[in-house]
Automatic annotation (TrEMBL), chain A:
This is Ion-translocating oxidoreductase complex subunit C. Its cofactor is [4Fe-4S] cluster. GO terms for biological process: electron transport chain. It is a peripheral membrane protein. It is an enzyme of class 7 (translocase). It holds the Pfam family Fer4_10. [4Fe-4S] cluster 1 binds at residues 386, 389, 392, 435.
UniProtKB/TrEMBL annotation, chain B:
The chain crosses the membrane at residues 42-61, 93-111, 123-142, 210-234, 246-264, 270-288, 300-318, 324-342. It is an enzyme of class 7 (translocase). The complex is composed of six subunits: RnfA, RnfB, RnfC, RnfD, RnfE and RnfG. This is Ion-translocating oxidoreductase complex subunit D. GO terms for biological process: electron transport chain; transmembrane transport. It is a multi-pass membrane protein. InterPro entries: NqrB/RnfD, RnfD_bac. Belongs to the NqrB/RnfD family. Its cofactor is FMN. The gene is rnfD. Its main location: membrane.
Amino acid sequence: MPAMLRKLAQRLGMLQHSFAGGVHPEMFKVTAGLPIEVAPIAPVHILPMKQHIGEACSPLVKVGDRVLRGQKIAKSEGYLSVPVHAPTSGRVVRIEEHAIPHPSGMGLPCIFVESDGLDEVDESLEPMADWREINPAILRERVRMCGLAGLGGAVFPTFIKLIQDKRFPIETLVLNGIECEPWLTNDHRMMLENPDDILSGMAIVMHMVGAKSGIIAIEDNKPDAATAMREALSRASDMENVRVVVLPTRYPQGSEKQLIYSLTGKEVAAGRLPMHIGVVCQNVGTSKAVHDAVMLGRTLTERLVTVSGDACDNPATMSVRLGMPVRTLFAQRGLDDLSGLHLLHGGPMMGERLKNVDVPVIKSTTGLLAMSNATMQQAHTEEQPCIRCGHCSEACPVHLVPNLLADACRSDQFDKAENYHLFDCIECGSCSYVCPSNIPLVHYFRYGKGQIAQTRREQIFAEASRKRSEARDARIEAEKAEKAARRSRVRQEHAPVKTGETVEPEAKDATQEKS
Amino acid sequence: MPVMLSPPHAHGGDSIRMTMLTVILALLPATAISVYLFGWLAVLLIVTCMGTALLTEALCLKWMKRPLSTLLDNSAALTGLFLALTLPAAVPWWMAVLASVFAIVLGKQIYGGLGYNIFNPALSARIILLISFPLHMTTWIMPMSAVEPALNLYDFSLCLSFFLVGPDALKVGFDAISMASPLGYVKTEATLGVPVSEALNAYNYSYLNAFLGFEAGSIGETSALALLIGGIFLLARHTITWHIPFSYIATVLLLAGLFNALYPEQFTPPLFHLFAGGLILCAFFMATDPVSSPVTPLGQIVFGIGCGVLTWSIRSFGGYPEGAMFAVLLMNCAVPLIDHYFRPRVYGYKSGGRS
Ligand code: SF4
Ligand code: SF4
């Protein structure tokens, strides 16, 4: 009965510790009870020069170079960027463009590392076991050079969130163990098998950002994970200010802003970051990676990947070296023939369909799902007219009105779409999930966002060239005026009788405009 | 396989067909009671309306070269059933046919088909009929064939001849079989200056009868009980939300309660409003019609309040005794405005829309 009452209260939006909206997709966590398996090293690993959100890296090695596991092979070029490391020891055999997991099927420069089977490790990074004594800025640099990016799937460079800013003191570190996407079980298994490393990473992050308290958030469909984390907490020293909070299972509970609302009842204002309200979120997998980077001096060369899906008879949560070709990994699970299957990169709610199976596992590869044709067809049946049932508005965790928004995008009324907060849509897909008319709403939002971005780029370009040509005109004007002025000065000198004549005003204006 | 394969790659399994079927199921108690109360007349009416609606829809689809499989979305069947339930048992067959054709053609297809109509198709057809044939549309037969022997509702041939030929077939006029509905009766008396309590007494009005359905009215709207069962089913199945029915009914009750308390002899009491006429049918089934109601919860509450105010006002001050259907239709016009102005506050923004 209390459970029913709570459900009712949630549906009415009366419980504070729950965001309004969201859906309950079937979870299919078939690999939840299976221990993590270690994938073997592939003959050749393919390392794209960009595996995170931000700017691409540039290679540090040449074809023929020998590399060690963990060695930096590409350096970050911009601020929002993290380096790439060799996943195993071997030789660089090629550096060329290759397909990466991306909806557009686009390619990027990649370094191909051929394994020598020795898996020798580059030990040049010293462990920092005394991190409590170390300046957070130095730890942050360590996290950066180890190539860490959010392993929950968003792959935002981790070090960016680890800054201490006097103006925005961090109250709470939230460790995100929600894992609300169906099928995926990485965080779940990680919490069961490495709870102590996760906590160690959490302590380091709290030290770095100066957080006073910590919350480990777990959905109630993983009670064993919550127990494991609680037990680890009781073993850990000086982590009394950290607690485990179990939240009701609802997609997209794991989305940062929704999670913060569920935990604190606070909203992150539009255009601001969680740190502005004193919160920093990290995924549990990222926390483990922080532990590895600081305590063991290990760079990011592997991640957990759930290989599953209804067409995969032998699913598993796997520890995979980055750069492993997807085809090889599926073959590991007995899927040699992928024809007739639909492959997803990530979970079914926000993941992308893979057009090419020769792409590698990258830092954002949370899952690789093999789906049968029938399942995909069921999910993508023919679009019917909107019957304005309002289920999409009810499901939207951002409180948008998806059907009106999609209408505006579809009819190219982009001003209206922006007015309806198109850019606040997090593309969680909850709206499409519940739509009885099977309208691919997210598709329309992406179309709208793409068109608007395109127009903006063009506008900026046009503006720049307008400025350039204006400046040129002004310069010519100014030169002309200058000449005229010189001429008139010359004339004046030769005709001293004239009065009241000054330099032409336009000349002045033109020079001013130029400056 | 369709070409568009953007995420999500999972679907909850809801469909238009199931939604419409759920509403049809929710109307079953009311349908069953209407058959119990009005016998073969109700059966004939429902079959005619649903049949004509489906046929008309099929013809429209054929003419517009759309796939006939669209019929399977159950929306035309639902419109037919809706319409039948809002008609008096005494309407002749041709009026039922006309109304069904109106509902599909004028109520839905001219706007572009399902999803594009501004008004609830069944309601608009019913209103066209009410305005065109006021006499037929306000001639009520006493439920349970109390007017025997003029019309025996259990006798199929009698009902069929009444349906096909009208009261003339029975050698009786409308006056002999008709009776006023409670709403109509009180309204007429009120215009003559008779106080509400006296009128109700004279009518022999009983709240229990009204709740169960033993009062004159359209075949599907008499039984508040049956409609409430269906409404609760819809709420439980999450086909509708509480916003519209709750705000609608609460508004009527509040207004009626307030005015009845202040001027008991001029304004009818709230419970009378609740059970009389089509308030419950409209609140749970008509006003919640997804296509012609607002999409956001906030908008739905505004819509419900609007329907409530209009229903009570028309019943209390208007020329027609019943206001529920007019109210819903009028509010349908306001839906685009409501949708635009009553959007929820977006995450991360203050109520003014600033961040
Ligand atoms: S869920 Fe689908 S049919 Fe319902 S209002 Fe939204 S877009 Fe329209
Ligand atoms: S995809 Fe966008 S519009 Fe749809 S539910 Fe998610 S946030 Fe709302």
